[in-house]
Amino acid sequence: MDKPEVFEPTPTRPRRTVETDYGLGIVYAITAAALLAVQEPFSALAARTLSSLDFMALTQLALLLSLPFLLSQAVSRRDFAAILLDIRQWPKLAVIFLVGLAGLSLYDIGLSSAHPIITAAVLNLSPFWAALVALAVSRRSIAIAPWAFWLSFVAAFCGAMAIAWSQIDADGEVLLRDLIASLLHSKWIYALPMPVFFALSGTLVYEWFSDYDEAGAIGANFVVSALVLLPIAAIRSGLGQEASRLSEQSASAIVLLLAGTLAASAAGRLFYQLALTSTKNDNGTVTMFFLLIPAISALISWPLSRWIPTLSFIPGPVFAAGMALVSAPLIVLSFISRRAAARASSAPEASPAE
């Protein structure tokens, strides 16, 4: 039975073949985690000094500013133009945009007033949702035994939560009371499926644009997002009218926000997509390494706290234990994933000799 048309390359475009390489995919995933970790500390000041519409407008502007970086290679520019100029790709671009918008909306509704521990728990569930998304959309199961994957996930999740807990400067009894109050009264339940949309966005880009260069495909999606959101945010926020009244603190916040968005939303997203390509959309394994983000964000906050009082880094035994609990299962996962992929790739070669 023929595959659906949406998964077929255009007649003039040969199907791109990429060898599965879990070693390279893991390197890409760790790089993506490090870049994504920049977002929170670099945008903390902007989140406190700018309105939500200004924040969104500047974020979209940063995505447009990332295009020269994303399209620095000729193949990226070629595929960027090929996607945007092909009317058949427009519905796919629209779907991916709506998926991303749904995720942002759930985050705003459910986590804008939630306790930081609840926010961390929701975000750290990403590997669970990503594995389900890859299985449901691509029929792509994880490369290793399910028990090994889920055991690694539980251990790394507990480590990431320990890191988040260690960075809250409050008495344990007060922290627990605030957490229970937030659980009972905030709208965090609406944000539970929010990581699904991030994982679904990555999987859909892989499924629909795997015959195109990753940077070109991501750049095309950024253009669609900016064309819709940037005019709305700029008009409603009066960004141009406020530009002449920017304070020194606001200017610093904007610079940090632009830098963080370029690192996380542009470069981080690119390396995430490269990791999916290298592992043939093993989204669960790739996203598992995103559990390193809380630790990396905390370490990035350390030097920034000298200039941004709201940032802090609290070293201690809980943070160290969390780091160990995250790192150990990821090291094991890296090893067994590479071995499982190597066995799978060598199996067809052995069959003719039988």
Task: Please outline the helices and strands.
Elements (H helix, E strand, L loop, with lengths): L21 H15 L2 H11 L2 H14 L1 H4 L3 H12 L4 H22 L4 H9 L1 H13 L7 H21 L5 H14 L8 H16 L4 H24 L1 H4 L5 H31 L4 H6 L4 H12 L12 H34 L4
Helix pairs in contact: 1-14, 2-14, 2-16, 3-12, 3-14, 5-12, 6-11, 6-12, 7-9, 8-11, 9-16, 9-17, 11-14
Descriptive notes:
- The protein has 354 residues and is mostly helical.
- It has one domain (29-342).
- Helix content is 74%, strand content 0%.
- It is built from 17 helices and no strands.
- It has helices spanning 22-36, 39-49, 52-65, 67-70, 74-85, 90-111, 116-124, 126-138, 146-166, 172-185, 194-209, 214-237, 239-242, 248-278, 283-288, 293-304, 317-350.
- α6 crosses α12 (214-237) and α7 (116-124) runs antiparallel to α9.
- The longest helix is centred in the last third of the chain and has 34 residues, at 317-350.
- The radius of gyration is 21 Å and the shape is globular.
- The model is unreliable at 1-11 and 349-354 (pLDDT under 50).
